[in-house]
Amino acid sequence: MGNFSTIKRRDFIGTTATAAAGLTIVPSHVVAGLGHKAPSDKLNIAGVGIGGMGFSNLRRMESENIVALCDVDWDHSKRCFEHFPKARKFWDWRKMYDEMGKSIDAVLVATADHTHAIIAAHAMTLNKHVYVQKPLTHSVYESRLLTKLAEKYKVATSMGNQGASGEGVRQIQEWLWNNEVGEVTKVEAFTDRPLWPQGLAAPKTGMWPPETMNWDLFLGPAKFRPYHRMYTPWTFRGWWDFGTGALGDMACHILHPVFMGLKLGYPTKVQGVSTLLMTDSPPDSEMVQLVFPARPKEKGIKVNFPEVQVNWMDGGMRPLKPSDWPEGRDMNVSGGGVIFHGTKDKLICGCYGEKPWLLSGRDPKVPQSIPRITTSHEQDWIRACKESPENRTETASPFSEAGPFNEMVVMGVLAVRLQDLNKELHWDGLNMEFTNIRDNEEFKFCIDDGMEIIEGHPRFNKVWSDPINAKSFSRELIKHTYRNGWSLPDMPQ
């Protein structure tokens, strides 16, 4: 393996997948029998999507061998390539897996949202440990798939919601479970995002991509559209085909203590409302309401978990302050905030579960019952990678939890995109389908608002799509149809 011949590596049993038609990887068989590494041994880590957050993650993994780097935009990734000069460089993660499968122990995925699942899923079928940036996936089905693949292959996994490793999330869980605020029946949460443009019509004309970018590989499983600089690199979050808007960007941070502290599962009801909803771009601001049924009380927990309503806001909106809110105190901490409305008190925290406090002013003295993480989120995942499945202490955000949690997050996207059905949607989480969308229901999207200023007055000549069948559209949102040449592994039974 050239530069890597002297690097310590796990002795993988089996071979890597071979490329099928085109460049699609279809593993010929599963690598099996992984053992564990001593903490002093180094993992061989590959990074996919390394120009932004991926570079930041990799720098926190420098205790290990960074052996391969992959990105579709080599100009945006230049700093990372220069920082890790010994790593092999790739445009296509499929080629990287094919050529270096035996040399890689673990994979970081920090690409645009729409390619998280396909890169991580194939890595897991090759028995690679995976760290995937948030949101975990672009769709409900993809989240379910990664959850089940992690269970099947018993690899170490983590979603990149780094606040999960912080003190606040653990403290909130302990306060809630010790009945410090009573039964929680409503939660309000918000973020100050987006920071990138949203609510846009798609560009009417395309552009030639830069020579340093492979646009076809960026699109990956998404349907083809001509390149435009509005789509990437950071602005991908503001386009439905590639991102999930402010909700997907920040709810995986802000709602994590809600999901964990209240032992949430699948919601049963959901609805969304927003500013003007465009065909291609998330709205400027939105509100989502998810209803979760009562959950059974677990051993050692002193509080009941009744039906709870979780409300989300973004784009500048935030909850109204309770009447006894301390004057002058900002609700926004590090990009957002949460209010847990309990029958005894209200618990408030910021983004990542930061700085939790009770509205009553009490300072609960609750014994610590949840182990603390003293390293970084990334290093805790590395620790888990080196442990055998039988003796592994799970990470702070393993796919067994991050998968169902991410389903909750992208469910909010579904609610917003289906809002013009003008009703509360009923969700069957186990079967991943809406139960009250009729076969013949239709709605339209706004393609262009057609705004003009005439003699100082705004005029709108909105352009609408043809009628869209709601049931077919919802199924496509739940489980995407991938572009020809791109495919996911099968869902484990």
Automatic annotation (TrEMBL):
Transmembrane segments: none annotated. Residues 208-259 form the Gfo/Idh/MocA-like oxidoreductase bacterial type C-terminal domain. One of its GO terms (molecular function) is nucleotide binding. Residues 44-160 form the Gfo/Idh/MocA-like oxidoreductase N-terminal domain. Pfam families: GFO_IDH_MocA, GFO_IDH_MocA_C2. InterPro entries: Gfo/Idh/MocA-like_OxRdtase_N (IPR000683), Gfo/Idh/MocA_oxidrdct_glycsds (IPR050463), Gfo/Idh/MocA_OxRdtase_bact_C (IPR043906), NAD(P)-bd_dom_sf (IPR036291), TAT_signal (IPR006311). It comes from the Bacteria. This is Gfo/Idh/MocA family oxidoreductase. It comes from Mariniphaga sediminis.
